[in-house]
Design brief:
alpha+beta, D-amino Acid Aminotransferase, Chain A, domain 1, D-amino Acid Aminotransferase, Chain A, domain 2, 2 domains, 9-stranded mixed beta sheet, 8-stranded antiparallel beta sheet
């Protein structure tokens, strides 16, 4: 089912009509995946619509562009303001999903990216629960994918580069075709990395465990938020290698991501983990309040549009 469209998309400093936000067929990023992007959410709050950790997302976006040696013709502050402008221009007072994209444009079709100019686009639209409306309460079914996560010695896995997501898409489609909701990916060493589009957490004996960045995972901003929340709630959080067998022994399990938010996992490869456990539920509820500006200690994470 197609997602909901809005009226305007910000492209290189101008708001254009949704239908007019087009690129040339020989755009470099279309052929080689030479772009970086972010997924960000805005939520309604008592002070009006606000974007969750907008500055942190844009900082990561620029770090990704710098890693791929893309010369961005805008400052961080300009892109932050453009995100807010796009939310306002589309009247998304009830919240929305934001997709800022930096990509290498038309002008060079070879692998040498140096002559390419960088373009920037920002789109926003209403987007519900990524893993299903019931996922947050009933949990989702996972399988360990046959596809391995990118090796961090082959590509910088900390970067949200457009081309990398062919890897994630293969795992996601494999899981759906097999009757599951989502895929868990191992790295090339056989350790657990992350899901196709989310970071992964296990709970065992009251301890919250998540794979470390050295496993080749994306350093998720939702992941970082959840680690902070869990520690503030008094739980020990360990960033440590996770083996496939550890998945089957977990007392609770959940995944995190901007699109997914915090979603419990009720089974892996047919092994039942159970329904949403008490630690998962407590973290999930605190996160849901934090993104809406309802937790004083996390109010700096909420950046108002108006």
């Amino acid at each position: 089912m197609p997602f909901a469209t809005t009226e305007k998309i910000w492209m290189d400093g101008e708001l254009v009509n949704w239908a007019d936000a087009q690129v040339h067929v020989l755009t470099h990023a279309l052929h080689y995946g030479s772009g970086v992007f972010e997924g960000i959410r805005a939520y309604p709050t008592s002070g009006g619509v606000a974007v969750f950790r907008l500055t942190d997302h844009i900082e990561r976006l620029f770090q990704g562009a710098e890693t791929l040696m893309m010369d961005v013709p805008f400052t961080r502050e300009q892109i932050i303001e453009a995100c807010k402008q796009t939310v306002k221009a589309n009247g998304q007072d009830d919240g929305c999903y934001l997709r800022p994209l930096m990509y290498l444009n038309y002008g060079e079709i070879g692998l040498n990216t140096i002559p390419c100019k960088t373009s920037v686009a920002i789109a926003v639209w209403p987007w519900g629960a990524y893993l299903g409306e019931d996922g947050a309460t009933k949990g989702v079914r996972m399988m360990v994918s046959s596809w391995r996560r990118h090796d961090p010695t082959a590509v910088p896995t900390q970067v949200k580069a457009s081309g990398y997501y062919v890897n994630s898409s293969l795992a996601k489609v494999e899981a759906i075709k097999a009757g599951y909701d989502e895929a868990i990916m191992l790295n090339t060493a056989g350790q657990v990395a992350e899901c196709s589009g989310e970071n992964l957490f296990l709970v065992r004996n009251g301890r919250v465990i998540t794979p470390p960045t050295s496993a080749g995972i994306l350093e998720g901003i939702t992941r970082d938020s959840v680690i902070t929340i869990a520690r503030d709630l008094g739980y020990e959080v360990a960033e440590t290698p996770v083996l496939r067998g550890d998945l089957y022994l977990a007392d609770e399990m959940f995944c995190t991501g901007t699109a997914a938010e915090v979603v419990p996992i009720n089974s892996v490869d047919g092994r039942v983990i159970g329904s949403r456990g008490p630690i998962t539920e407590r973290i999930q509820q605190t996160y849901s309040k934090a993104v809406r500006g309802e937790v004083d200690r996390y109010k700096d994470w909420v950046e108002h549009v108006g």
